[in-house]
Design a protein that fits this description.
70% helix, Tetracycline Repressor, domain 2, mainly alpha, elongated, 0% strand, DNA-binding, Homeodomain-like_sf, BscR_C, HTH-type_Tx_Regulator, 10 helices, 2 domains, TetR/AcrR family transcriptional regulator
Amino acid sequence: MFETYNKVQQAVLETTLNLIIDKELQATSMSLIAKDSGVSTGNIYHYFNSKEDIINELYKAIVRFNGEYVTKDMTETDSIQTQFRKAWRNLIELGNMYPKGFRFIEQYSFSPYIYEQSKLEAYKDGWCGPLEKLYRKAVDEGVFVRLEPQMMVQMHYGSIVYLLKGYQQNLLELTEDIAEQAVLACWNAVSLEKGWNE
C-alpha cells in the first residue's frame, strides 16, 4: 500500500494506520508514532510538518492504492457490464484484503483532520472518478436509467460498504455467491438490462 514511499515514510504511515485503527485518531500522538515506528521525532518532521500532514498523506496514499486496486483489469474494450462487475467485485476484495485501510477511509473521510483539497483529489484521482465516467457512458448509451452518475456511484458504494462492514463485524457471511448477488443487485437497480448477459 505504501510502496511508492521511502522506508522512513513507509514506517511512519504504516505505524500511524495501525495506531489509529487500534487506538483512535485522538490518542495517536507524534511521540507514539515515533516510538512504535522506530523513527525519531526529528526524522518524522523531516518528511511531515505535523500529525495532520501524516494523516492527510495516509489518506491520499490509501485512496490512490484503492483507486488502482478497484480499477485493475478494467479496460476500455470491456463492455460496460464487465467493467461494472470487475470494479465492484474488486472493491469487495479490497475491503477483505486490506481491512485497516478500508476502515480508515470509512471512519475518517469526513474528519476535519482531512483537508478539503485532499478529499477533492481523492474523489477525482481514486476510483470514484473513473466509475462516474463509466456510469455516465452507461447513461448516455441507454444502458442505465437517467439518473445522476455520481449519485448512483455513491448509492452503490454505500451498499457494498455496509455489506463489508457487516462481514467484518461478524454479522453476516460474505461468500463468493453473496458478493456476486450484491453486485448484481446494484446492477439491476440502475440498469435497463436486468441480469448478467455475459
